[in-house]
Amino acid sequence: SNRTFTMIKPDAMKSGHAGAILDRIIKEGYRIVALKMTRLSETKAGEFYAVHKERPFYGELVEFMSSGPVIAAILEKENAVNSFRTLIGATDPAKADEGTIRKQFAASVGENAVHGSDSDENALIEGDFFFSSLERI
Ligand code: ATP
């Protein structure tokens, strides 16, 4: 598919990097299909990351993702899921390549500035989680 889903996470919102991150995404050639600033309740954050509920960091992750506003977006570009994961870099910013968004803006493996869907199937599920059908035409 040519779409992926992203979120600018609370750490990047708090540190004032949201504009720079969106600018980078647009300059890399992604079309913004849908965009909103919103907040996740603990319940909603828990649902979004339900695949991780057995992981030791789940509680911390849910608390962090509900700690402040996020920006959610659906992005369009050829090979969107894979190209966007390359653009954001490794989960742990210490291991992220030079020039990636996480290398530039992320503080730690937990507070890592951005989310990017890991498959076409999840991109659809995650986009549906935040946007109505009319908002993601
Ligand atoms: P995302 O799904 O947010 O794009 P990812 O696919 O790079 O990230 P996952 O392994 O799916 O990474 O982990 C999901 C999220 O859980 C990470 O982005 C990070 O915020 C958090 N996380 C992952 N590993 C750890 C850890 N060891 N300690 C704390 N938080 C973690």
UniProtKB/TrEMBL annotation:
Q: Where is the active site?
A: H115 (pros-phosphohistidine intermediate)
Q: What does this protein do?
A: Major role in the synthesis of nucleoside triphosphates other than ATP. The ATP gamma phosphate is transferred to the NDP beta phosphate via a ping-pong mechanism, using a phosphorylated active-site intermediate.
CDD domains, from UniProt? NDPk_I (cd04413)
Looking at the keywords, is Magnesium present? yes
This one is known as: Nucleoside diphosphate kinase
Primary location class? cytoplasm
Which Pfam families does the entry mention? Answer: NDK
Q: Which residues bind ATP?
A: K9, F57, R85, T91, R102, N112
Q: Where in the cell is it found?
A: Cytoplasm
On assembly, the entry states:
Homotetramer.
GO MF annotations in UniProt: ATP binding; metal ion binding; nucleoside diphosphate kinase activity
Entry similarity comment: Belongs to the NDK family.
Domain Nucleoside diphosphate kinase-like, residue spans = 1-135
Kindly report, in one word, the top-level EC class recorded for this enzyme: transferase
- Record's GO cellular component terms: cytoplasm
**GO annotations under biological process?**
CTP biosynthetic process; GTP biosynthetic process; UTP biosynthetic process
Alphabetical keyword list: ATP-binding, Cytoplasm, Kinase, Magnesium, Metal-binding, Nucleotide metabolism, Nucleotide-binding, Phosphoprotein, Transferase
Provide the reaction this enzyme catalyses. a ribonucleoside 5'-diphosphate + ATP = a ribonucleoside 5'-triphosphate + ADP; a 2'-deoxyribonucleoside 5'-diphosphate + ATP = a 2'-deoxyribonucleoside 5'-triphosphate + ADP
Query: Which prosthetic group or cofactor does it need?
Result: Mg(2+)
Q: What is its EC number?
A: 2.7.4.6
